[in-house]
Design goal:
mainly beta, 16-stranded antiparallel β-barrel, about 10% helix
């Protein structure tokens, strides 16, 4: 009887030790608020809208210790709209992220639906991801705010060496006899040291209309007309962020080119961003951002231009719950006749559009 009791205790202890080496976390963000737009198709508009600061989401994140410094990891992340309860990401259950992988002292290898290197590395600098989705470069044309994810992707991220981290991704297009069709190739390098973060990345998307836009034109006047016919979309970017006391300064440049997108010719958009954030108290953050977007349509020489200025304030009630204020004014110029702030549901009837939002966000 004593031997049986000892065996049962040993088995339970061993099982507990095994399970203690594995973990699964349920997490998420719910962001809901009231948005006022000065001009949507010629009329002002009030909307109860989700996702002004962060896109609402929930997900599972897990890890299992395999020994020898190796871990099996996975992420399943869903985007949703708390205003209606609808799924985000064109109805996908886990449309934000869905991947499995192995991490070790030699780096991390993951397989599935995930972010490419522009979104991964430059998003740390970009005000569109850190403060408000409205501040993303016109229509998030360069994906620095992470609007698009990559299907069928294999991704590697190196360990940090002397402050440097290398990342690379390749997505298989899945077309028989056309290996590169719908494929995505992405590489990036970042540096972290002291108060400095700097990064550079490049992404090439073949047939972007089907590869990342699900054969649905993006809801933005900035570049929606060029995506369906584009043979490829290339994005190159670099930027840096430096922390000085309570202030953080960010500078970023990106260039997006749609190959043969309009009348057999290329279309290019260059984005320049400067942002400054200041932590007034541990509970109160303020920020200002300016984004300049300059386009060039080779077929007709058109030069659409967009200038946008944004203000942001965020007050934390606790580590999980905060209330925020976001405002932006966008002015179209050059050959552009309409403005449309990123994530706004409709363009203006003229060249100016403004937006003001007060939102409540809870993390769990």
């Amino acid at each position: 009887m004593k031997r049986l009791s000892f065996a049962v205790v040993s088995l339970c202890t061993t099982s507990a030790a095994v399970y203690a080496q594995s973990s699964v976390t349920l997490y998420g963000i719910i962001d809901e608020g009231l948005t006022y737009t000065t001009n949507q198709s010629g009329h002002s508009n009030w909307q109860l809208q989700s996702g002004g600061a962060s896109i609402s989401r929930w997900g599972f994140r897990g890890a299992e210790d395999l020994g020898g410094g190796m871990k099996a990891i996975f992420v399943l992340e869903n985007g949703f709209d708390p205003s209606t309860g609808n799924l985000g990401n064109n109805g996908r259950l886990f449309g934000r992220s869905a991947y499995v992988g192995i991490s070790s002292n030699y780096g991390t290898l993951t397989l599935g639906r995930q972010y490419e290197e522009i979104a991964d590395l430059l998003s740390r600098i970009d005000a569109g991801l850190n403060w408000s989705v409205y501040f993303a470069h016109a229509g998030d044309i360069d994906n620095t705010a992470g609007s698009n994810r990559i299907n069928n992707a294999v991704k590697y991220v190196s360990p940090q060496v002397a402050g440097f981290t290398l990342g690379a991704l390749y997505s298989f297009g899945g077309q028989p006899g056309q290996f590169s069709s719908n494929s995505v190739t992405s590489v990036g390098l970042s540096y972290t040291g002291g108060g400095l973060y700097a990064a550079a990345a490049y992404t090439l998307i073949k047939n972007p209309y089907t590869a990342v836009f699900d054969s649905i034109a993006p809801r933005t006047v900035t570049f929606a007309a060029y995506v369906p016919n584009a043979q490829s979309q290339s994005i190159a970017g670099l930027g840096g962020q430096y922390k000085i006391g309570n202030a953080t300064i960010g500078l970023e440049y990106t260039s997006t080119r749609f190959k043969k997108a309009f009348l057999g010719n290329d279309v290019r958009f260059d984005n320049y961003e400067a942002n400054v954030g200041y932590q007034i108290t541990p509970y109160l953050l303020t920020g200002v951002v300016y984004v300049y977007t300059h386009g060039k349509v080779d077929a007709n020489g058109a030069t659409p231009i967009y200038r946008a200025t944004g203000l942001f304030a965020d007050y934390l009630f606790s580590k999980r719950t905060d209330v925020y204020f976001a405002a932006q004014l966008m002015k179209a110029g050059g050959s552009a006749r309409q403005a449309q702030i990123t994530y706004d549901t409709a363009p203006s009837s003229g060249q100016t559009q403004g937006i003001v939002r007060v939102g409540l966000r809870h993390r769990f």
